[in-house]
């Protein structure tokens, strides 16, 4: 069951977490089971996240996944066996009908925040949507994106669309991102729940030449700061061995250290 997306004062945020990409069924199930245990222990609602296709890899040799059909099969199994709601990315409008039949929530990638057809099709699907702010967009620019999504939902007869806005850092020179915490306040004032993507915010896009690098040591301080500023949900990619992950390993957090990090988040959340 999906959580209430607007966080009540003193309540923990909901958590969107999982591996960057679906590497295997076994890995997804093992991570989902750990996340379920962690969420239960902390009273934190968990949505399992994994991508069936990473269509925006830096180089042609980057691992993209096993395709939509296999990916949706794995996500459906995770959902059935763990009871966790599941989320995945969509990159094209014509993917949405099939994907929305399997997952509980859709996500649009940051690079595609200006793709009107994708944003509107996702919002019209009837599924909740997490819209990532593009690295090249200012926080106030997301008002227009939110307007597109709400218009599409209204046109589809959806009375109370669940549309979230997600901060994941802004381009800062070459191969670097910076998080302006003011953006969380600005986007929350638009009337949409706000999610902070703590792991992609420490990415160094293209920093490795044919791949992106990352600074995972900054995930915790940024996540704590975002929680203090005020967010509704937290996004974190996690893996039992980030250094061997097939995608985004340098900015992912270790599954073994996730519970302790989230305890700090929950403690901050209880302050207000």
From TrEMBL:
Domain DAHP synthetase I/KDSA per the UniProt entry, residue ranges: 11-262
Predominant location: cytoplasm
Alphabetized Pfam families for the sequence: DAHP_synth_1
Compartment list: Cytoplasm
Keyword terms, alphabetized: Cytoplasm, Lipopolysaccharide biosynthesis, Transferase
Any one biological process term the GO annotation gives: keto-3-deoxy-D-manno-octulosonic acid biosynthetic process
Catalytic activity: D-arabinose 5-phosphate + phosphoenolpyruvate + H2O = 3-deoxy-alpha-D-manno-2-octulosonate-8-phosphate + phosphate
GO molecular function, one term: 3-deoxy-8-phosphooctulonate synthase activity
EC numbers: 2.5.1.55
A single cellular component GO annotation: cytoplasm
InterPro entries, A to Z: Aldolase_TIM, DAHP1/KDSA, KDO8P_synthase
Pathway: Bacterial outer membrane biogenesis; lipopolysaccharide biosynthesis; Carbohydrate biosynthesis; 3-deoxy-D-manno-octulosonate biosynthesis; 3-deoxy-D-manno-octulosonate from D-ribulose 5-phosphate: step 2/3
Keyword Cytoplasm in annotation: yes
Similarity section: Belongs to the KdsA family.
Protein's recorded name: 2-dehydro-3-deoxyphosphooctonate aldolase
Organism this protein belongs to: Erythrobacter sanguineus
Chain's gene name: kdsA
């Amino acid at each position: 069951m999906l959580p209430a997306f607007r966080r009540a004062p003193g309540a923990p945020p909901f958590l969107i977490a999982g591996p960057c990409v679906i590497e295997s069924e076994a890995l997804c199930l093992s991570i989902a089971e750990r996340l379920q245990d962690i969420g239960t222990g902390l009273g934190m609602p968990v949505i399992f996240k994994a991508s069936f296709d990473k269509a925006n890899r830096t180089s042609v040799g980057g691992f993209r996944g096993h395709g939509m059909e296999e990916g949706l099969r794995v996500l459906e199994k995770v959902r059935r066996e763990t009871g966790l709601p599941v989320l995945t990315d969509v990159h094209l409008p014509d993917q949405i009908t099939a994907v929305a039949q399997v997952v509980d929530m859709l996500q649009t990638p940051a690079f595609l925040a200006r793709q009107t057809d994708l944003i509107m099709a996702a919002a019209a699907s009837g599924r909740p949507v997490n819209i990532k702010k593009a690295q090249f967009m200012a926080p106030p620019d997301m008002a227009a994106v939110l307007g597109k999504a709400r218009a599409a939902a209204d046109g589809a007869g959806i009375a109370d669309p669940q549309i979230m806005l997600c901060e994941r850092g802004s381009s800062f020179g070459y191969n670097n991102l910076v998080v302006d915490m003011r953006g969380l306040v600005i986007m929350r004032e638009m009337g949409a729940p706000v999610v902070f993507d703590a792991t992609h915010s420490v990415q160094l896009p293209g920093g490795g030449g044919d791949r992106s690098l990352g600074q995972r040591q900054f995930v915790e301080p940024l996540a704590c700061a975002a929680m203090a500023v005020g967010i509704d949900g937290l996004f974190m990619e996690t893996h039992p061995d980030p250094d061997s992950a097939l995608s985004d390993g340098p900015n992912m957090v270790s599954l073994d250290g996730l519970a302790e990090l989230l305890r700090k988040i929950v403690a901050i959340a209880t302050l207000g």
